[in-house]
C-alpha cells in the first residue's frame, strides 16, 4: 500500500579506517611492551653488572621483540581485511623497472638529508640520548633490526594494511597524512617522530602512486641504511649532519643540492606515475 522511497546508498567502509588504524597501533604498542620485559631486564642488568656479550644479547632481543610484535599485528590486520572486506586481499608487491628503482634511491638520499636537517632542530633529551647510546651499539643483530626487519615489516603494516585501508575510505591526501601521523606516533618519541612523519609522507605518496609496497620498502631501507652508517661513524649519539660537516656554508649548499635533487626526482616519478596501471599483486 505504501511505496517505499529509495534509500540513499551508504558508502562501503573498508578496514581499517582512522580509528581502527589507531587501535592497531595501540595493539602494536601493548604487545611490544609485553614482549619487551625480558629485554628491559637484560638492559638493566647489563648497565649495572656488565653481562658478557651483553650488547649483542640486547640487540638480539630487540630484534626478536620487533619482529614478533610487528608480525602479530600484521597478521591481525590482514585477517580482519580478509574476513570482512576482501577475502583474497594480498599486499601489493608489484615490481618496478630498474630506472625507477634508481631514481627512488636518489630521491631517498636527498629526502633523508633534508629530513635529517629538520629533525636536528629538535634537541634530544639526556635520557633519550643515554637510551640510544645504550641500545644502539652497531652489530649484526642491530643491522638486521634497523636495515632489514623495519623496512620489511613496518611497510607491510603501515602501508600495506593501514594506508591501503585509508585510501579506500578517504581522499589520497587525507589517507597519506593520517598514515604518516600514525607512523610517527608509533616511534613514541618526538625526536624520531618528526623524521618518521616526513618520511611517512614521502613513502605514502609513493605507495599511492606506484600501487606497490616495494618502492616504499626501498625508501625505508635506504633511509635506515644511511642512518645506520651515520651511527657507526658518529662520535656522539646526538651528532647531527651539521656537526659532521662542520662548515655552515658547505652544510647549506648540501641542503640546497639535496632539496633540488628531491624535487627533480619527485617530478620525474610523478610524471611517470601520472597514469598508474594497477598490476595484480604477486
UniProtKB/TrEMBL annotation:
Residues 139-226 form the CAAX prenyl protease 2/Lysostaphin resistance protein A-like domain. The chain crosses the membrane at residues 24-45, 57-78, 98-122, 142-163, 175-208, 249-269. This is CAAX prenyl protease 2/Lysostaphin resistance protein A-like domain-containing protein. InterPro entries: CAAX_protease, Rce1/LyrA-like_dom. The keyword Transmembrane helix applies. One of its GO terms (biological process) is CAAX-box protein maturation. Keywords: Membrane, Transmembrane, Transmembrane helix. One of its GO terms (molecular function) is endopeptidase activity.
